[in-house]
Amino acid sequence: MKLNHLRILPILLLAIFIIFQSGCSFINRGNIDRSNLASNENGGTKLSETIMDQEKSTVENPLQEEKKEDRTENSKAGNQIKQVSEIESQTEETSDFQVGKQDNRNEKQTEEIAVESKENRVVSKAPKAEKLGQSKKTSEDAIQVVGQPEVITVLVNKQNKLPDHYAPKDLVYPNVRFIFSGNPEKKKMRKEAARALEKMFAGAEKNGILLAGASGYRSQATQEILYNSYVRRDGKAAADRYSAIPSHSEHQTGLAMDISGINGKCAAMDCFGGSPEADWLAEHSHEYGFIVRYPKGKEHITGYQYEPWHMRYIGIEIAKEIFEKDITLEEYFDEAIPINAGK
Question: Which CATH class is domain 135-335?
């Protein structure tokens, strides 16, 4: 019996040892699982935090982009405003300069009017806006284009120009003497003016005065050649006193004729003044509808020096009034509007 117990005892001890080892292994495995679980939980937490940070960054980035776009738009707007301000500044400076130019012209006109006042003549400071055959404003320099260039009363001067390349349709050769031969176009005048010129030459001859034509109609192209040659010879300032720039010449209207004696010695020259022919024209040309277009002492009004040879046809009625009042064509149009002007 004791022998059997001794045999069983090692077996029991072995069984207890095995059970003990199994228990320790199970406990270690549990600890490892708990450690892994804790690690997984920590890793999940960190992963969640990383994802949240990315989402937060994603939310914040659009705001930053919007702010960046806002800054870009503000910068562009600022540049545009700066450019507009610069343009407005330039415009204001240009406007001030133009206003200054206009003020200078107004002062000059006022000075001219003051000179006329000393001669006890009332002259309007501003030409009437509506005149028969007169003009419409086309530029800041007060240059105007004649609205009805074909009327006999048309006013053409430094401020009033003919339409570009205007040419009268009724040009004819007057039957009078000329200081040159042939039939160039500068012999021509408009028909009504040509018939009046014939009568005036005949009337002068009855008084022992022999007149001759020197220069009548002149195209714009011809005037341009002449004017440019005078500028080259005498300079612009001097040329502007005795020659018209193209489209501003009365010769282009077909209503003007430069007149001389038959020898042509002083044709279109200062020495013509005081000659028997010049004196007769000054006293009698109005009887035939002509005026001395650029009289002595009126350069500040007409814009041209004294030209006793330059005859302008305007019609008998108006020519007589201008002669009796001793005024220029510019002054006439400032004083009255012709109602029944010839055409």
Answer: alpha beta
Which of these is catalytic: 192, 250, 277, 307? Answer: 307
Of 219, 189, 175, which is closest to residue 289 (Cα–Cα)?
189
With bands split at pLDDT 50, 70 and 90, how would you rate the model's confidence at 230? very high
Q: Distance (Å, rounded) from C-alpha 171 to C-alpha 189?
A: 5
> In this predicted model, which residue has the larger pLDDT, 60 or 171?
171
Tell me how crowded residue 211 is: count the other CB atoms within 10 A of its CB: 23
Strand stretches in the chain, DSSP E: 135-137, 144-146, 160-161, 171-172, 189-190, 211-215, 256-261, 290-294, 307-313
Measured distance CA(9)–CA(12) in Å, rounded: 5
b (16+ CB within 10 A) / e for 282-298: bebbbebbbbbbbbeeb
pLDDT at 289: 98
The secondary structure of 10-35 as a DSSP string is HHHHHHHHHHHHHHHHHHHHHHHHHH
Write down the domain spans for the chain.
1-88, 135-335
Q: How confident is the model at residue 16 (pLDDT cuts 50, 70, 90)?
A: confident
Told to judge if 66 belongs to the known catalytic residues of this protein, a careful annotator would answer no
